[in-house]
Amino acid sequence: MLSTHAVKIAPGFQSHTRPLGRRGGRGGTVRVVEPSGFTKISALGVEEQRVRVIVDFAAPREAWQALGDGYRVEARFVLWEADDVLQLPTSALFRHGEGWAVFTVDGGRARLTPVEAGQRAGLATQVLSGLRPEPA
What is the pLDDT of residues 40-80, one digit of tens each? Predict the structure, then answer.
């Protein structure tokens, strides 16, 4: 995994791994994030700093042994999770002064609304304050 991503995970983190290009995945737990990295040239010719991450599968051996040695897999790691999280698309956020803001609709008009952003997951960002969820 890229070293810039590996610094965010640690032993005990949950993972979801699947063979490249296949459906279905296997859950697991990070056992080791190796302490040293190595340089690898990407398919586009870019030098990348990589780190090996070792994951123990939770499923019985029969469920994953067909992977073989050295197979390429797609892996996702759970860096943070919580219940009842208010989130919005990261693209809706923009810098406003020292913080963040979004536009909301109030009475048919756009209103600038300061918000406090929390955890980010690429396309989605947690909102800690400034917005309330709409009633279901």
Answer: 998 899 999 999 999 988 878 777 777 767 777 788 888 88
Identify residue 64 by its one-letter amino acid code. Answer: W
Contact predicate 116/131, CB 8 Å: no
Report the C-alpha gap between 52 and 90 in whole angstroms: 29
Residue with tokens 């918000």: 115
- How many angstroms separate the CA atoms of 82 and 70, rounded? 34
In order, the DSSP letters of the chain are -BHHHHTT--TT-EEEEEETT-S--EEEEEEEE-S--EEEE-TTS-EEEE--EEEEESS-HHHHGGG-TT--EEEEE-----SS--EEEGGG-EEETTEEEEEEEETTEEEEEEEEEEEEETTEEEEEES--PPP-
pTM above 0.85, yes or no: no
User: Which residue reads 């208010």 in tokens?
Assistant: 86
Cα gap 21→104, rounded to integer Å: 40
Report the alpha-carbon distance of residue 99 to residue 86 in Å, rounded: 18
